[in-house]
Amino acid sequence: MIRKLAEKDRDKVLKYLYQEPGYNIFIIGDIETFGFEQDFQRIYADIDDAGSYISVFLRYRENAIFYSHNNYFNKDYLRIFEDDPFQVISGKKSMTEVIEPYLKNFKKIKMYFCEAKKLKMPLIKHRFKIKEIKTEAECEKLFDLISQIEEFAIFKNNRSDFIESKMKSIQMGTTLYIENKGKIISTVATTAETKKSAMVVSVATDPKYRNNGYASLLMQELMQRYFTDLQKSLCLFYDNVNAGKIYLRLGFETIGEWNIYRKID
Predict the structure, then answer these.
(1) Which domain does 50 fall in, by range?
(2) What pLDDT was estimated at residue 153?
(3) Same domain, yes or no, for 141 and 235?
(4) CA atoms of 71 and 64, how far apart (whole Å)
């Protein structure tokens, strides 16, 4: 039976999701941070007669994630898909492929899923002051960087939305940056932070400053903070082979694949 979850379900659903904490980092992070009573987030689950979880489906704003430990998809979810539509749905490759036949007018993006628990490379000595985003003014400067990078074109004409979203995301992770002459030239961030891990996102460098090792410096600082100070692991996705080589040198290991499906207008 599929039903919408509430606060009383917290312990059981988290226990189920923590079977694979890396792959479930987004669902776990959203539950631990926002709970079950927010208007922008809904969590559904397929639960058998004995009370055991079969699958979990998260709706967070325009995004959705599906997880099942045995790659089973209950077609009753299709009614929820119709009543609670989304623009993006993602998940572990083996799981999303069981729902792929039902995703009409969606484009699939294949990603590699990585995890790291220790830093392999020695820390690079540098003269830069690495800062952390805390204010709206810093978010403004970050937008100026992000908006000129093709991979983040979705934010190009949405300055106010970006700033609002970034300020909210501060409670779910960390955003580090390097600036030069008052401009942010490189950044890296985490999101979906849980009690055990966090997801690395938004690794970006101003095109004029690339190939100088700024992203690697920020990644090392980020990894050092999470592994040493917070005692947490880090996860990330990549589809760019060259970027993947950098992550693997730093200490990330590819543990699987992740599919993202974006609705086609």
Answers:
(1) 2-104
(2) 58
(3) yes
(4) 16
